[in-house]
Amino acid sequence: MAVADGLLVGRFQPFHLGHMSALRFALGTAGRLWIGIGSSNRPPEAANPFTAAERREMILSSVDAGTAARITIYDIPDVENHVRWLDLIDGIVPPFGVVFTNDRLTERLYSERRSGAVRAVRIPLLNRDELSGTRIRDMIGGGAPPSDWQRLVPSGTRDVLRRCDAESRLANL
User: How many of the other CB atoms lie within 10 Å of CB of 11?
Assistant: First the structure.
C-alpha cells in the first residue's frame, strides 16, 4: 500500500523546534510533505513579522538534504472563510491523503468535505509552553538575551533571524 502524501500548514513565525518536531512527525507518516506557509499575504505586523520568503528560508535552512528532498513549500494566503480557505489550499497544493493539524475545525471540515478521503492526524506538541511562536517573538522583540530564545529555534532559523535583524523589526512592530 502506498504511503499518502501529507499537508502541514503553519504560520512558522518563526520556524522553531516545535515546528521541526511536527515536520519530522509528519514525515514519519507521509511519503512526501506539502508545507503550507499560512498567512503568506499578510503585511508585517507583530503577530506576522516575517515574510513568506523568510519563513521558507527558515525551514529550508533548518532541514537536511534528505528532508528537503521530501518536502515542497507553498504559500497559503489568508481568506476570511475557513471553507473557502480549504478550497484555496486544494487549488494550490497537489493532492494529499493526510492533513496534519491540531485545529479541530480543520480536522472536522476535511473529514466532512471529502467523505474521509483526507485523514486528519493530530500532531504531538513538543513542550508547547516554551515552544510558541508568540513567546519567541516576545523574547526577541522584548530584548531578552539572545541565548534565551536562540535555544528554541534551529540553527538555520537563527541565521535567518540574524540576517533580517529580527530584534529591531520586532521591537519596532
Answer: 21
- The answer to whether residue 115 sits within a structural domain is yes
- Indicate the number of domains in the chain: 1
Residue 145 lies in a domain: yes
Residue 92 in domain? yes
Q: Using one digit for the tens of pLDDT, what is the confidence trace for 23-58?
A: 999 999 999 999 999 999 999 999 999 999 999 999
Strand order, beta sheet including 71-76 = 71-76, 33-38, 6-10, 98-100, 119-121
Query: Nine-digit cell at 121?
Result: 492526524
Judged against a pLDDT cut of 50, whether residue 139 lies above it is answered with yes
What is this structure's pTM?
0.94
Report how far apart, in Å, the C-alpha atoms of 24 and of each of 12, 33, 67, 136, 157 are.
15, 10, 9, 21, 16
For residue 147, the domain's CATH number is 3.40.50.620
